[in-house]
């Protein structure tokens, strides 16, 4: 039906002779639709953060989206900085050791720590009164040589070490010290042949998963030894949310549910040198993107693929992540509901005014652990907290009793004769931990109680 109006602009047709079509309004609508499509397309490709620049980086998962290069760097560095400040990971008086494996996670961790140090140095230089300015924390880098376990060509290893030296020397502040130590460094200098002892120890473990886990624990002991010998106060690991998600599932499969909460927090002070994870909220995908954007050099030397349970879990999580980019975040967020242990926060003893801000942030953001449920002992091999304590003497049988069920099943030999041989190959630091048990933790609790009592006495006198 037509309106027959000569001035009608509704787009209807006229039913006069010939039923002539008026196409002019249709052209207007088409132009409007085209402009709308252009605006929508421009909106879909605009950076979500600045809303002004075209997006060139696209990420998935929780908090994912589209960013321009500058906003992407700022967003990723913001996650790192929030983790550091809200959990009091680094204070101005610290000496920080960054564990560098050559992969994208440790590379970004080293870059961000160096940038944070540079900003602290600029603030220090800009302060007129140096007596009132905050000191600048020191940074070191540690690389563990695993060629004794994973043989590589000497030329390839020498080139990898030179590349690492070049990476460290090109950081904003070139005063960073580099430590390159073999994994057999975990053995005492009194040991005649640490390399052979290490080979004998790893060869005595038949389970593929157990051998991988043992090497992981030995690597941590090597890093701790470097940190202790050189006076470092914090150890930074590049563990990202992707790696932690794999650990959550693999630890669950291995029966390490009781100790799982200890391994996935931002801070871990059960070690002599506290361990911190500033990249805990950063997916591996974003770390890889940043390395490509900023041409951060990667040193891929010990690229052994995981086997056993660890390899299966890694492949499974990868498939889940491809189906849904938020799977890794969901796994870690779910595991994060577990109650942390008392050692999952940086100790506040002997801090000055320079650390008060970070303390306030830590108290604001951190979940408080249940102080009434301390771990009664730690596994001498993996250092996992255990719900029962067994006093281990200097014997293989009692050493087995002091280990967690997972290490007993996957690392320790079943036969008594093989157990005796395995025990003889262990580093002295592991045997010493088995002897000491949780005495260090008990001493710390006694000191805390004594300090509280002294404070109460002083208050009474006032």
What does this structure look like?
With 462 residues, the chain is of the alpha/beta class. It is built from 17 helices and ten strands. Helix 4 links the parallel strand 4 (138-145) and strand 5 (177-182). Helix 2 (69-86) crosses helix 9 (284-293), helix 3 (104-126) packs across helix 9 (284-293) and helix 7 crosses helix 10. The N and C termini lie far apart (98 Å). Residues 4-24 and 353-375 have low confidence and may be disordered.
Number of strands: 10
> With helices defined by DSSP (H or I, 4 residues minimum), what is the helix count?
17
What is the end-to-end distance? 98 Å
The profile of the biggest β sheet is:
6 strands, mixed
CA-atom Rg in angstroms:
29 Å
Widest beta sheet: strand line-up: 5-4-3-6-8-7
Spatial shape: globular
Helix content: 40-55%
Give the helices and strands as they follow along the chain. HEEHEHEHEHHEHHEEHHHHEEHHHHH
Strand content: 5-15%
Estimated structural class: alpha/beta
Q: Please, what is the average pLDDT? A: 81
Unreliably modeled segments: 4-24, 353-375
Short key terms for the protein model shown above:
462 residues, alpha/beta, two-stranded antiparallel sheet, 17 helices
Secondary structure: elements and pairs:
Blueprint: H1 24-44, E1 57-58, E2 66-67, H2 69-86, E3 95-99, H3 104-126, E4 138-145, H4 154-169, E5 177-182, H5 194-203, H6 208-229, E6 234-236, H7 241-253, H8 260-263, E7 267-268, E8 275-276, H9 284-293, H10 308-323, H11 327-335, H12 356-365, E9 377-378, E10 385-386, H13 396-402, H14 405-410, H15 416-425, H16 428-436, H17 439-461
Parallel strand pairs: 3-4, 3-6, 4-5, 6-8
Antiparallel strand pairs: 1-2, 7-8, 9-10
